[in-house]
Amino acid sequence: MYPADLKYTNDHEWVRVAGAEATVGITDFAQKQLGDVVFVELPEVGRTLKQGEAFGTIESVKAVSELFSPVSGVVTAVNGELGSHPDFVNSKPHDTWMIRLKVSNAGEAASLLDATAYEALTK
């Protein structure tokens, strides 16, 4: 159910690291727990994040939750489509990215969960 090419956090974010770039979003489990997403607040490009640091919020009809960076790095892009279409997170959570980072410590991704471990966490 969870793509094997992604790494996962205990806070239900996913990350795809390719070289020095990381792409971050939330998992299918997270979007199901939230319900219909109505707003996503993302950081400014250029912001430096540490692993585990909150980088934004996601609001649904049920709750407002913080978003946490799976790895350390500098924000190089934010998904502007989420401003007008936050519901993309519900329809394609593992294809809908939120931020892209220039990774500052590639080794951090090794400490994250693989798909099998994440699926076990969510059971």
Please explain how this structure is put together.
With 123 residues, this protein is an alpha+beta fold. It has a domain at 40-107: OB fold (Dihydrolipoamide Acetyltransferase, E2P) (Beta Barrel), CATH 2.40.50.100. The protein is built from 4 helices and 9 strands. The longest helix has 7 residues, at 28-34. The mean pLDDT is 96.
Across the major sheet, the strand order is: 1-2-3-9-8-5
Rg from alpha-carbon coordinates? 13 Å
- Give the DSSP E fraction (strand runs of 2 or more residues): 35-45%
Give the SSE order as H and E letters: EEEHEEEEEHHEH
> CATH fold name of the domain at 40-107, please?
OB fold (Dihydrolipoamide Acetyltransferase, E2P)
Q: What is the C-level CATH assignment of the domain at 40-107?
A: Mainly Beta
Count of β-strands: 9
The residue fraction in helices comes out at: 10-25%
Low-confidence spans:
none
Instruction: Give the CATH superfamily of the domain at 40-107.
Output: RNA polymerase II/Efflux pump adaptor protein, barrel-sandwich hybrid domain
* Average pLDDT: 96
| The CATH architecture of the domain at 40-107 | Beta Barrel
Distance between the termini: 12 Å
Largest sheet: 6 strands, antiparallel
